[in-house]
Amino acid sequence: MKNDGNGNYTTLKQKNIDTGMGLERLATVVQDVDSIFDVDTIKALRDKVCELANKEYKKEYKWDVSIRIVTDHIRSATFMISDGIMPSNEGRGYVLRRLIRRAARHGKLLGIDGRFLSTLSETVIESSKDGYPELEEKKSMIFKVLSEEENKFNKTIDTGLNILADMEEEMKKNNQTQLSGKNAFKLYDTYGFPLDLTEEILEEKGFGVDED
């Protein structure tokens, strides 16, 4: 129905219903699968993650979480880079950087060694290039951006994780539940370890960060 603003309604010529489903949710229904991660195009990427990690999907919950995060984030990152967004410390670029780094970290949690994001991005491109030919056209650039960002993050995370682990042990000894703001800032300022990543890692282990 069309509302003229005065409380009067007239019937529309086209009678449509907006379900808010989106293409992927619609595909989930049409293909009769449990989630978007089981839809054919996304499943190909999910399976590639499992192959690299040597993990079986739906075998252990904690692995499933990381598999889904890597699958979702590398897919989003591939399309964002194709659209011209570059990793940075603000705005959309910061969103992209967080997606890439979170995918890299969860890949490490799954036991994937070395660089792997470009390999997964290639699977995204292969499964989507018919509908999005620009992915194939910009493939080299996408791989370059992902590799550079992954290299930067690997250097940061290896050092930061070791230092954070020492801080966790110290908190346990002192029966503390929160990392001090001073230590969180030290991780970021001295070692380039992002605060959001510090918070995420600590939250998984039942700790928090004192931001006051």
From TrEMBL:
GO molecular function terms noted in the UniProt entry: alanine-tRNA ligase activity; aminoacyl-tRNA deacylase activity; ATP binding; tRNA binding
Matching InterPro entries: aa-tRNA-synth_II/BPL/LPL (IPR045864), Ala-tRNA-lgiase_IIc (IPR002318), Ala-tRNA-ligase_IIc_anticod-bd (IPR018162), Ala-tRNA-synth_IIc_core (IPR018165), Ala-tRNA-synth_IIc_N (IPR018164), Ala-tRNA_ligase (IPR050058)
Organism: human gut metagenome
Regions crossing the membrane: none
Record-given protein name: alanine--tRNA ligase
GO CC annotations, alphabetized: cytosol
Domain Alanyl-transfer RNA synthetases family profile: 1-212
EC number: 6.1.1.7
